[in-house]
Automatic annotation (TrEMBL):
It is found in: Cytoplasm. Catalyzes the formation of N(4)-acetylcytidine (ac(4)C) at the wobble position of elongator tRNA(Met), using acetate and ATP as substrates. First activates an acetate ion to form acetyladenylate (Ac-AMP) and then transfers the acetyl group to tRNA to form ac(4)C34. Its main location: cytoplasm. One of its GO terms (molecular function) is tRNA binding. Its EC number is 6.3.4.-. The gene is tmcAL. GO terms for biological process: tRNA modification. It comes from Leptotrichia shahii. This is tRNA(Met) cytidine acetate ligase. ATP binds at residues 7-20, 102, 157, 182. It is an enzyme of class 6 (ligase). GO terms for cellular component: cytoplasm. It holds the Pfam family HIGH_NTase1. The keyword Cytoplasm applies. Gene3D superfamilies: HUPs (3.40.50.620).
Length: 453
């Protein structure tokens, strides 16, 4: 059985995502096994996800995904390099044969050419030259690639694709890359043409949903439901039926409970401002992705800003984008420290599975091995869990009686120590979700046994 892996945010799940799943089955066969690694309640842009992890899992199972796992919170909210690196490692850890990803460039050889080029000293010199002139990293990358006639490659999905391929090559992973060309919509588009009938980006869909939230937030009895449905007609054609149903339920819950993004950002800013201005510099400096220059900017920004928007404007610089600042805000809120970011996979959390996924998990459990059920390959322990409490138990402290002067024991002890810290970060995320979205974390996966895909 061929095993295909996908990495996605599905925020929300739209027709482009369904197209990719159907294309996979068209190319590799209907009986292919599909596993997905998703970011959960917090996403790579440094924001709270519009749909939570369980809503994403539901719609994935409805449309033919067999196994859904979560990219741990402390990796899902970092830059494209870390997000891609760790998600790809999880797919490889799960035993997937091929990683399929969408990209604007459909020729994988062109992307490989860019990867090879970026290793050269000539390219590195050009990149550094443009950065010294005051350009951001992204702009410098585009300008450097332009000299080789490859500047068209600097697009959102191509950048992620390059990072997936870079990680596969760098870590010598078994999984192989495969592109399904992204159809029509741009990743960050905020408007679509009226004649567009099928595809629109998640960014466009979120913007439209946020407008509805702003307009109707606080309508506890949903007196405006008819008007809300009329507004939703603008996006309904761009999402599958089950996804639309989940989006509507999500909207109704947020409207009834007075939850919208402006309110959330207002609350987030209050907490972060308090932490930045009252914590000692040494403590804030331990947070991941903060250096002296960044600390100075965010401290000044917090001191002079009255709201979230002002804070972003007052901290932004040539080398510090708004999105990076938003990721740093979450790192501070969640207390993600640099010392714990060891880029190890301590566990894989299963969010949902269907019958085929259940069988695959059973084989892993019985054989402790992915690729060869007859046991011809070496056995390898896989820390894969379907219940959050089991992850906590697995990470419970056991005294290290080994010789701490032994470098291997010291390394293992450090990994174990970081494991406890990572579990605490995940639980911090559960608490923030409860405070901001009024939703408690589920501890068990969604089991979907009616899927005929």
């Amino acid at each position: 059985m061929l095993k295909i892996g996908i990495v996605a945010e599905y925020n929300p799940f739209h027709n482009g995502h369904l197209y990719q799943i159907r294309k996979i089955k068209e190319i590799f066969g209907k009986n292919v096994f599909i596993a997905v690694v998703i970011s959960g309640d917090f996403v790579q842009r440094g924001e709270i996800s519009f749909l939570d992890k369980w809503e994403k899992t539901q719609v994935n199972l409805e449309y033919g995904v067999n196994l859904i796992t979560e990219l741990p919170l402390y990796y899902s909210i970092q830059n494209a390099e870390i997000f891609s690196k760790m998600a790809t490692q999880i797919l490889d850890y799960l035993g997937m044969d091929i990683q399929v990803f969408g990209a604007e460039e459909e020729n994988i050889e062109v992307l490989q050419k860019v990867l090879d080029l970026q290793k050269s000293q000539d390219y590195k010199d050009k990149l550094m030259e443009y950065m010294k002139k005051g350009n951001s990293y992204s702009t410098s990358q585009r300008l450097a690639l332009k000299e080789y006639g490859l500047d068209r490659i600097v697009k959102s999905n191509n950048i992620l694709a390059l990072e997936y391929m870079r990680e596969i090559e760098k870590s010598n992973l078994k999984i192989k890359p495969f592109i399904v060309k992204r159809e029509i919509s741009e990743y960050n588009e905020e408007k679509v043409e009226k004649e567009r009938e099928e595809f629109a980006s998640a960014s466009f869909l979120r913007n439209e949903l946020e407008k509805i939230l702003e307009e109707f937030c606080g309508d506890k009895n949903l007196k405006s439901k008819k008007l809300i449905l009329e507004k939703l007609e603008k996006i309904q054609k761009f999402v599958p039926k089950k996804s639309f149903e989940i989006i509507l339920e999500n909207l109704e819950f947020k409207i009834k409970n007075g939850i919208n993004w402006q309110k959330l950002k207002k609350e987030i800013f209050k907490i972060v401002k308090y932490k930045i201005l009252t914590e000692k510099k040494e403590k804030i400096m331990k947070i991941y992705d903060i250096n002296c220059e960044i600390y100075a900017r965010i401290y000044r920004g917090a001191a002079i800003s009255k709201n979230y928007k002002e804070f972003l404007e007052n901290t932004k610089s040539r080398n510090l984008s708004n999105k990076r600042v938003e990721r740093i805000i979450l790192n501070i809120l969640l207390n993600i420290k640099a010392e714990m970011m060891d880029f190890e996979i301590n566990y894989v959390r299963i969010l949902g599975f269907d019958k085929k996924g259940q069988k695959y998990l059973k084989k892993i459990r019985e054989n402790n091995n992915f690729e060869d059920i007859e046991g011809k390959n070496d056995f390898e322990k896989k820390n894969i869990f379907v219940n959050w409490k089991d992850i906590e138990k697995f990470g419970s402290f056991s005294e290290n009686n080994g010789n701490m002067e032994n470098s291997e024991n010291i390394k293992n002890f450090k990994i174990q120590e970081n494991f406890f810290k990572k579990i605490k970060i995940e639980k911090n995320g559960f608490l923030l979700k409860e405070l901001f979205l009024e939703k408690r974390e589920k501890l068990n996966p969604i089991i979907y046994l009616n899927n005929q895909n």
